[in-house]
Amino acid sequence: MMYLQLFWSFVQIGLLSFGGGYAALPLIQMQVVTEHQWLTLQEFADVLTISQMTPGPIAINAASFVGTRLLGIPGAVIATIGTVLPSLVIVLTLAWFYFRYRNLSAMQGALYGLRPAVVALIASAGLSILFLALFGSSSLPQSLDAVSWPAMALFILGYVIMRKRKVNPIVMILGTGILVVILTMAGLPIQQL
To answer: From the centroid of its chain, how far is CA 31?
Structure first.
């Protein structure tokens, strides 16, 4: 029964995650954290971090991680197939329609109209993760006492470096990890980060 539930959850994610991996984040969060409570929000943030560090799409990496955590290797296979199957069917169908009707203005209009929705989904997931990292919850805090100032400093530093220097995200993740280790060894408790 758990295999079927895991498969169906990731089929829904794969079916509804238009716009790629980042657009899938709120769907994954809803299924994995909110609805089934397979992971806590903190564990979900850790999954996203790991998914960014490993090759491949975020949704597939998250499916593999959650499946492994719940049911071992068979769970990872089931969750990954559930994530990929809807996309495979949809892409094959859309490719057929696109090549057949690509010159129609309705096709171009539909593709253009999906862009704002995708941006909104990405922004929603990004803000949830940002709030969790900086405030320890998925929403804005009531006071500035809840702000993790070391995390805020790392966020601003990372943002400025990414915008000004165009540093590779993997280098940024590794550099931030090393910096956190150094700060922890210097006596700054890791819970504050």
So the answer is: 13
Model pTM? 0.56
Q: Are the CB atoms for 13 and 27 separated by under 8 Å?
A: yes
Q: In 3D, which of 149, 147, 130, 146 has the Cα closest to residue 138?
A: 130
Per-residue pLDDT tens digits for 42-78: 888 888 888 777 777 888 888 998 999 999 999 999 9
φ/ψ bin of 39: left (φ > 0), alpha (ψ from -120 to 50), beta (otherwise): beta
Most confident of 10-14, 145-149, 152-156: 10-14
User: Tokens representing 174?
Assistant: 């590794």
Tokens read off for 59: 């949704």
3-class secondary structure per residue, the chain: CHHHHHHHHHHHHHHHCCCCHHHHHHHHHHHHHHHCCCCCHHHHHHHHHHHHHCCCCHHHHHHHHHHHHHHHHHHHHHHHHHHHHHHHHHHHHHHHHHHHHCCCHHHHHHHHHHHHHHHHHHHHHHHHHHHHHHHCCCCCCCCHHHCCHHHHHHHHHHHHHHHHHCCCHHHHHHHHHHHHHHHHHCCCCHHHC
Angstrom distance (rounded) from CA 81 to CA 85:
6
Question: Angle formed by the axes of helices 21-29 and 41-53, to 10°?
Answer: 160
